[in-house]
Amino acid sequence: MTRARQDRLLALLVREGDWATAATLADALGVTPRSIRSYVTALNARVPSGAAVESGSQGYRAGADAASALRASGTDAGTPRDRLHRLVRALLDAPDGIDVFETADALHVSAATLDADLARVRGLLGGTELTLERSASRARLRGTEMAQRRLLSRLAHDEMDAGSFDLVALRRTLGEGSVGAAAFGPFKTDLVAELGALGYFVNEIGIGDVVMHIAIAADRVAQNRGLDAAVTEYRPAQQEVASIIAQLAQRHLGVELGPGDLQHLATLVLTRVVAPGDQTPVDHARARLDADVEATVREVVETAAAEFLVDIVYEDFIMRLALHVQNLQHRAREQAWSRNPLTRSLKSTYPMIFEVAVFVASRLQERLGIPLPDDEIAYIAMHVGGRLERSRHADQLLTATIVCPGYYDLHELLRSSVDRSLGQAIEVVGVETRIDPDWTSIDTDLVLTTIDPPVPGDRIVKIQPFLTGADIEHVQAAAARIRRARRLARLRAELERYFDASAFVRGLDTADAGAGAGGTGVEEVVIRRLGSSLVASGVIDEDYVERAIQRERMSSTAFTDALAVPHALEMTATRTAIAIGIADPSIPWGGGRVQVVALVAFSETDREAFQTVFEQFVEVFSERDSVQRIVRRATDFGGFLDELVAVIDG
């Protein structure tokens, strides 16, 4: 557990990219500041000649050798986690089982300790179709070869950080002498090139996961543990991909994969990491689709567009998403889920897009029976985000007026430079060529002027007649300030309407005392506690609380390292209201820890406000200093509202 917390600390510092105090980091990890200092010492010990974590008067930040420290295997080979993984590998490598006493001696533990480890192995086997048998001094795993490979895959994921795949972690999983560990590097490069030559787009985010499965297959085949021959005929696409994998396995690994392995791996490639190229016509894509899947996805997309007021109903988007969902069905049958290292950043940076993806995933789960973990929801979010990025409205641009006294065509040259360099951020709607313009009549969002204005202002940016790189940066910064100020102004207006003093709880840390009873998690306890206030005031009913809990089970609503925003997917509240809970110290939530929980209940009439409140509220609480200020000073509802408004106003 200590090493896991060290890794979490370093990952947090890398993600923040700035200084953080020991107290702030302790809140995020649920430990004491003294523990943070000891973790920093241990992390720096992993890279004796470098610095994993830098220390200073402002606290701690990630050092130049942070990545090396995360990859370092460390000296924890005797930890329970490492011992558990070694025990599982021993069981997987021994068809006839292991001798408990001999294995205990090899691991330098007592037989009683190994018995306890075997009990933990049983806990790993849930959903794997494997069983652990014990007869006298022997223990063995029973189950299909495919089930054993799934267990190896689970171990590999457990060894790796945030879904990213690396050679060191794979070798720890398969063993240093593994044939498959060499599958990275040249094998992956050639596989991507060959797939590209066939006209496929390759998903680089998922390719590492597939290569890991190829590595596992190669290692098992080298031990004469190949899959049985396939019982179904190859489809043409499968045949093409299988042929590539067979050639590369021979070339790079010296392993001859059998028909069963090749068909399995070709299916993984086709359902995980490739998509039709841009030139693929819609009719050709539809020919590959199950009609029921297409109809279901179309219905779900149209419902999501209406529910969240987002512009995603496009034929190419529906086709690509439907192909993705059809592949999801194949992966679900194989229990071969794809990891997505962007899940956390997508959730915290684009909470609204992720929420649309959760809605789509929930409806697909209902209609197609596909259970979707967070990483798979993140892939749907990438589809949604890509479509929304393409269909952004021009009214998102800020308007601008250029003030440039006339001299030949200087003002036209300047306008051309502005359009070329800043056209994606602003739209020039007017040019003033007088030396004494009527400044009060200029009502655009920005004023770009080559002369000094009589009164400086936030929307006025002084630029040179010949646009420079520094001018471009100043205009972009001013545009960003204006956009943020507008977003937060809208947020402030909305929030002041929705908060209720009777739905404010300070001291959520006391709520987890009831967690764990009957399998109830902290999240459910807190949601019920905050929901009871809104139920008492008639804003929601008990059914809304239950649906908020169901939504939480689908995907954690901890959108930042400090804030959770539980809610139901349907907007059925009698009026929009937000119940706030403050936790000091932090409480566990969805695999992380949070200090602020905002149970949001939206009404149908406030559908348009959903995006403003949801996305900008998360933005405010993504700044750790702001969170600490609010948590420390918000001793009551009045104090919370005052501090929140102060943070919003800057």
From TrEMBL:
Coiled coil: none
The PTS EIIA type-2 domain, residue ranges: 506-650
Stretch forming the signal peptide: none
Stored SUPFAM superfamilies: Phoshotransferase/anion transport protein (SSF55804), PTS-regulatory domain, PRD (SSF63520)
InterPro entries: BglG_antiterminators, PRD, PRD_sf, PTrfase/Anion_transptr, PTS_EIIA_type-2_dom, WH-like_DNA-bd_sf
Pfam families: PRD, PTS_EIIA_2
Domain of life (superkingdom): Bacteria
Protein's UniProt keywords contain Cell membrane: no
Annotated Gene3D superfamilies: Mannitol-specific EII, Chain A, PRD domain, Winged helix-like DNA-binding domain superfamily/Winged helix DNA-binding domain
Keyword hit for Metal-binding: no
Keywords linked to the UniProt accession: Repeat, Sugar transport, Transport
Ranges where the PRD domain occurs: 288-394
The protein, known as: PTS sugar transporter subunit IIA
Organism: Microbacterium deminutum
